[in-house]
Amino acid sequence: MRLLRLSPRSCRRLFKAIALNWVLTTGFTIGFTLINGLIIQPRAIAQSITTPALACSQITNRRYVVLSDRPANLLPQLPQFLAIAAVPCSYLNVSMTFFGGFDNAKASIYRASQLRQLGLDAIVYSFAAQVTDIPVNLQASAILVEPSNDPNLTIQQVRSLTGKSPFFAVFNNRSVILAEVLSSQTKANAIATTFRNQGLAAQVISTDLIASPKPPTSSVPNSNQTATQTNHQIIYRVLIPNTNADTLKQVRELAPDAFITILKGKSYIQVRTYADRGNAHRERDRLNDRFSGTILLQD
């Protein structure tokens, strides 16, 4: 076997080629590893915000908060100052997004208006106290649905219409289905109208009438669902006798969220709910001029 003899010049060229190949291979391996790391890391961050870790009421002790009922992982692209303020949270097991706490109504209204301009259904709410200086269009509303003879079927209908998970609750000592908890009045009224068009008895109320969830004190159709209790304030309900097939249509011309209810075996139409007795009496008297037999029920 003959040995290959290389000149000193050829040896230097071969050595350079081997060294260059090692540098390129090593550099490619290191670069590929770093790129993979950069790709994986943001994915982990994105996943970490999909499940709210805090209750919305626990984030701040400020008097006013601004919230959106859209989960943080479903938000559109936001300006940096809003994206930084967004905090995933939950209220009554519903995923929401917190956009800041404020000491005065003016600042909270301004923040909510910024979000509205971006198409988000933002509201201003107070977990700390009852407030009266929030504009009507930014106040929070909830939707109650009366269960049918088959409550589980009703809750399935509500879920299919909203795409969200409603739950059974106790309101004014009766079992209801809570479909929305912190929506704007405009959105809540639109959803309630959809429910009624599908034959469901839906009512829009102020979220102020709902207290934080407590352990259930009475049985409800589904024991696995969260129950809520009303606060201790007195509630007044205005009821109109449901005398004929046209009564409900006539009442809804005045109160779109009116619905049929049964009291002592008789059919009535609940028009509105009031926390102030004087306002409730005035509404009863006004409606009684047109609908004879209108009554006021205190809960």
Give a structural overview.
This protein has 7 helices and 14 strands. Strands 2-3-1-4 form a 4-stranded antiparallel beta sheet. It has a 4-stranded antiparallel beta sheet with strand order 6-7-5-8, with helices on one face. The chain folds into 3 domains: 56-136, Alpha-Beta Plaits (2-Layer Sandwich); 139-233, Alpha-Beta Plaits (2-Layer Sandwich), CATH 3.30.70; 234-299, 2-Layer Sandwich (Alpha-Beta Plaits), CATH 3.30.70.1070. With 299 residues, it is of the alpha+beta class. The longest helix is centred in the N-terminal third of the chain and has 41 residues, at 8-48. Helix content is 35%, strand content 27%.
SSE topology string:
HEHEEHEEHEEHEEEEHEEHE
CATH architecture of the largest domain: 2-Layer Sandwich
Major sheet: arrangement of strands? 2-3-1-4
CATH classification, class level of the largest domain: Alpha Beta
- Radius of gyration over alpha carbons? 30 Å
- What's the helical proportion of residues? 25-40%
Query: How widely separated are the two ends?
Result: 109 Å
What is the tally of helical segments?
7
Which residues form runs of ≥5 with pLDDT under 50? 28-51, 212-232
- Please count the beta strands (DSSP E, at least 2 residues each): 14
